[in-house]
Design a protein that fits this description.
By secondary structure, the protein is of the alpha+beta class. The protein has 6 helices and 4 strands, in the order ααααβαβββα. It has a 4-stranded mixed β-sheet with strand order 2-1-3-4. The chain is elongated, with a radius of gyration of 21 Å.
Length: 155
């Protein structure tokens, strides 16, 4: 068996468990915290997560645990309409986040926000595999390319 198959099967089992017990939101939040900072393990795990980890260790699949947890987060997000959005702005802009949340009313957006002054202005938004580049830097690049193309034809 390969890593993907093992991870997705165990993750699906964890997803079904937390759906049955009704503690999905707590387990999902704790797993996201663990994945964000592997060195900062919580002192106590959620009971369902503790049972899951014990099962993984008992079955000798410990080396796949990180992949299982990542797969669980992905499956939980898909099942609950949660989208991870990566937003890069030239300056911090909480108003932009709230406006973008309004555009995606059907989904629960969770923002990973970064500031990159190289964008000059505007923003870059990535949701799943879709990207919207509304930055001034991108617009200037497009204008520069158009200018170069037009000048090549003249010469």
């Amino acid at each position: 068996m390969n890593t993907g198959t093992i991870s997705s099967r165990y993750a699906l089992a964890l997803l079904r468990l937390v759906e049955e017990t009704g503690r999905g939101e707590q387990v999902w939040a704790q797993v996201r915290t663990i994945l964000a900072d592997p060195d900062g393990m919580p002192k106590t795990l959620e009971p369902d997560l503790e049972r899951f980890v014990a099962l993984v260790v008992k079955n000798g699949r410990r080396e796949y645990l990180k992949f299982m947890l990542q797969s669980f987060v992905s499956q939980y997000n898909a099942a609950h309409g949660i989208k991870l959005a990566h937003l890069t702005t030239a300056v911090p802009s909480p108003e932009l986040e709230s406006q973008l949340k309004g555009l995606f009313k059907d989904y629960r957006l969770i923002f990973d926000t970064k500031v990159n002054p190289d964008l000059i202005g505007g923003f870059v938004l990535v949701v799943d595999d879709l990207m919207m580049d509304a930055s001034v830097k991108h617009q200037l690049d497009v204008i520069r390319k158009q200018f170069v193309e037009k000048n090549r034809r003249i010469v």
